[in-house]
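Structure ticket #2291
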Amino acid sequence: MNLTLKITAALTVATALTIPALAQTTIVAPGQSTSGTYMDYMKTVYARATFAELLQVPIATFDKEFELTPMAAESWSQSEDGLTWTFKLRPGLVWSDGEPLTAEDYVFALQRAATTGYDFAWYWDFAGGIKGWKEVTEGTADVSTLGLKAVDDLTIEVTTVAPKPYLPSVTSLWYPVPKHKVDELGDDWAVNVDTIVSSGPFDLESWEKSNNSVVLTKSETYTGPWQAQIDRLEVDPTLGAPEVGLPAFLAGDADYSFLNTGQVPVAEQRYPDGIRKNAVFATSYISFDLDSEPFNNVDVRKAFYYAVDRAELTSTVLKDIAIPAGSILPPGYPGYNEEVVAQAVFDPSKAAEHMAAAGFPGGEGFPEIEIWYREEGGYNGAIIPAMAQYLQAEFKEVLGITMNIRVLPGQDWMQGLLNKENNIFIAPYEYDYLDPSNFYGIFYNGGRHDHHVEAYDELVAAADSNPVWEERYDLYAQAEQVLIDNASIVPLVHPITIAVISDELGGDASTPNTLGFTSLDRLGHYFFTHLTKQ
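Resolution: structure written out below.
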């Protein structure tokens, strides 16, 4: 080597030693569940590892305005009879091990879900309406009869039992499963970090199973929409509880934290520009056994409808964690109708009139009742117990009745609801896919409440299959009017969550949408790929 080359080489080494490596952008976020079994959303939803879905690319998903956005699919179309959908995948998508991502990986994901006891299998019958799904999951038909077909590597064909104009929304929860990995390792492919492959914007670096914490890194192989703008995402579920999360945030050990009601004033004072609210697409409501006394009397149910002061409830007892609900649909949700909402007023005089019409003037002769609610965590854990006590006192004052309260484990509560073991429940429900059919479906043809109201069922069935949105909107509004006139339920509140975020966070995901809400990790694919950090 000549002198010039030696000097150049020496200078290169010296420069490399003195220039710091480019800093990685790392976001530390709270998680929710502290336990997880598989890093595979299509194996288990309720026992999945933290943010397993961020590793994979869905067919489509939602942005912060809840607009449906193509992801793995670049387009889709519906047949003239409304029964067949064709999804065209983007060319060039690959698994992180270099294997092509194909239509077969998506079809295989649902075939496997239908035949292996998937804990979210009901969704593809209730929401997806996939032809043959019920028969295959019940074991009375072969998986080959499912209305799913990989026409070629980039084309998926889905056949439904009835027209499903909202099926693209349903595919927001349709993730691929690497068939080549399952063929090699079975379900264990999603157990060990070394064997887990991804198709989406993040790869898995580590997974601490003792507390379900994960470290995700920006994918170097993902070429689809919404590529990550950060290098690392560290998710710690032990920070999910505000009591732990906020101190970590204040110490600089987390980039955002959810808040409980007691923490809100402090956070608002110290970080006025960092407060973010989100109206969860969920509703808590009173459900009755429509066939059981005394709630088989519509006047009794209407008395309860008018006896709830939702404004007082959400401005006092549930301040900062819920807003009034006048509809089964939350604000901002497709189909939300102000005319429907306006009818849910607090009117003690009307409540008294209906009680008298039912034969219980001033509550005289009304049987003692017991309202059931289930043990809850998260936002419902803060809302429902306090709301039950408020309703207990309000119904005593306004209706003159005695309502006791009983809390049950989730499984016992659901069994009591399905088997009509009690006559009044507080029922929470959060959306699974973004379409009115999701909420209205829980009362359709019995639903989860064994409600059978013919006029309602006819309207919902017509709306579900109508491809014209304006007509669907009107039909759903008519259907909810039937619920109101029948006083089938009493809408109570819509939960909201409050968080505080670091002033170092930026990007479109950190700013509220047009309704003033910031969904944070509830829209994980959007949030974590549209978030930046200084």
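Closing remark: The two ends are 44 Å apart (CA to CA).
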